[in-house]
Amino acid sequence: MSPEPHVPADDAGHEETPNTPGQAAPAPAAHGPAADGPLDPEDVGSTYLLEPGDLTHLLRQLVVSPGAREDLVRSPQTGAPLASVPVSTPEDVARAVAEARAAQRAWARRSVTDRARVLLALGDIVLAEQSDVLDLVQLENGKSRASAFEEVADLAQVTRHYGVRGASYLRDRRVPGMLPVLTSARVHRRPVGVVGVIAPWNYPLTLALSDALPALLAGNAVVLKPDPQTTLTALWAAEALVRAGLPRGVLRVVAGGGEVGAALVDAVDHVVFTGSTATGRKVAAQAAGRLVGATLELGGKNPLYVAADADVDAAALGAVRACFANTGQLCMSIERLYVHTDVAEEFTAAFVARVRELRVGAGLDYSHDVGSLTTSAQLERVTEHVDDALRRGARVLVGGVHRTDLGPLFHEPTVLTDVPDDALCAREETFGPLVTLRVVRDDDEAVRLMNDTDYGLNASIWTTSARRGRELAARVEAGSVGINDGYASAWGSVAAPMGGFKQSGLGRRHGRESIEAMTEPQTIVVQRLVGHGASLDELFKLPDGKGQALLTTGLRALRALRMP
């Protein structure tokens, strides 16, 4: 899930804008006091939505220097100021990493069971205090409350999974030694040290912690750099972890843009980045220069196919959520619909009708289905993609309007058809409430078009035959394929790896794979019967090739017995 049009975690709009690691998201469109000017007490838009005094306990989690410069953060829903957030410097990043490295040693010495208790306690806190954090997520990001709740549900899943099952991922693993009986071998996993997490603005709670939690369970410390637009949510998460029992210093938070992100990549032992492919390449190159690992979830241009035998009503309902949840600012969001000709008319009518029913608006409750876009850059990208497609002959089936009556960054959920292949929205990630619809003749054409992209993050297939769905999924070039689901079941199956093919990233989050990425495997072998004539050294010491002959006999026996 990410922004710059997948918007790079740190970029401003998850995709375009080739930003440097940790680049700040563009501020929401001007609405109220100027971002760099004093607040006018006579202007209703000058009133802070959050009382500065109420944020003191959160801001204490930041690693910043005295007298640090502050950034004014505004709510996307209205443009009104939220808070002034101090900005870290590269020197602050170095200090945060040093503090985390010092705290990591004692944390790693704790048992996995003790570390797991912290994760389980955090899950309880998130569920119990969801109202507070949902408000914060909505105010910073602009999404609807239903979309914000996905983040609470996700953390409940991730904390439970790693809290219960994580120990099994870290347990020493016995493997066959070189010589049966004589050689024993175990693989032990050790934490890498300090993991840097560069998180985007589109899922400020989920992506602040979904990689940090397995890193912590494995015995690492974490330094988190959230996007400047959503720093407060990350600070809430950090404070909640302390209340859950995490020792202070094991997770540190730094704030800022590209300079801060670059300093973090230069200091940690593994980096996790969610954002655009353009910025992801820069992060990967920077990490490779230091020979440290990198986990990257990047852009996507995700397809959904409605097969001839699909349940049309169910497919229409699922497609609406797959396309427009989180206002389309979701790395796994569906942006291309392919519909079999046999059901095209029926599906299109049902889908468009359901899109028209979506309630667009702002509110810290469940009264709206689709919220605001988060940044002015994303709004500009959506309108550019719509306008470009229309100039090239596309037709609007529903939507297509920037809703200035609702707020500065609202855009109606939009469905386009007859979109030519050279249109921007046909090839590039939009990362907003826009989807294209195309009719196909058969499964083969659908699969060909689904794979006709530089990306390969997520895909969806709707069919009443699970067997047919699996066979089609095996032909699709994507890291996850949901059969009769758009994205939620694939993301929510946290025991399974999540990541992308092609230009959609490197490595995987979730499951065993996340733990393995943030630990170093250490092989420990024990050679038995040393000094009793059975060691390799003693065999190789035998004269006239006798030792080699014995080994040859033994190797042939192992092959005959099909020993692994």
UniProtKB/TrEMBL annotation:
InterPro entries: Ald_DH/histidinol_DH, Ald_DH_C, Ald_DH_CS_GLU, Ald_DH_N, Aldehyde_DH_dom. The keyword Oxidoreductase applies. PROSITE patterns: ALDEHYDE_DEHYDR_GLU. Keywords: Oxidoreductase. Residues 73-524 form the Aldehyde dehydrogenase domain. Residues 18-38 have a biased composition (Low complexity). The active site is at E297. Residues 7-17 have a biased composition (Basic and acidic residues). The keyword Oxidoreductase applies. Residues 1-46 are annotated as: Disordered. Belongs to the aldehyde dehydrogenase family. This is Succinate-semialdehyde dehydrogenase (NADP(+)). It comes from Flavimobilis rhizosphaerae.
